[in-house]
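Protein in question quoted for reference:
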Amino acid sequence: MGLSIEEKIIVEHLLIEDEGMRQFPYVDCCAKEWKKCVCKVKGKLTIGIGRNLDDIGLSESESIQLQRNDVNKMTSEVERSFYWFSKLNTPRRVVIISMAFNVGISGLKEFKKMIDCIESGDFGSAAKEMIGSQWSSQVKGRAIRLASIMKTGQF
């Protein structure tokens, strides 16, 4: 039969009260951030409202929902930060969001030469700047694939 909607709401509120709501991972042995825990016997890595990441982790649907939230947030940040973003075609917009997702908005702003090339419509040079960056040596195939999309404007 399961719980009624009312019962589920009561349980949710009770768990928030008992477990707390934590945005960042902590260890349940001492409730300290996982990086700061010095307990000899480590507890379980936990996040949110008592989510045991060690044993339960995230389901595929939860991971996808987190990704959707992150992409929406990143898209809003990119739109606020770069006036030219809305003028790009879909494949190039996807490249910018993928890069921002990977390096953050402040990291993306460091691609000054690439940004100058995009602003002037020189997508071939923008792609070269992507390939010649330190980021490219870190992400390898991703950079090559994204630079190709930036250059051609096609998936």
User: Anything to note?
Assistant: The mean pLDDT is 96.
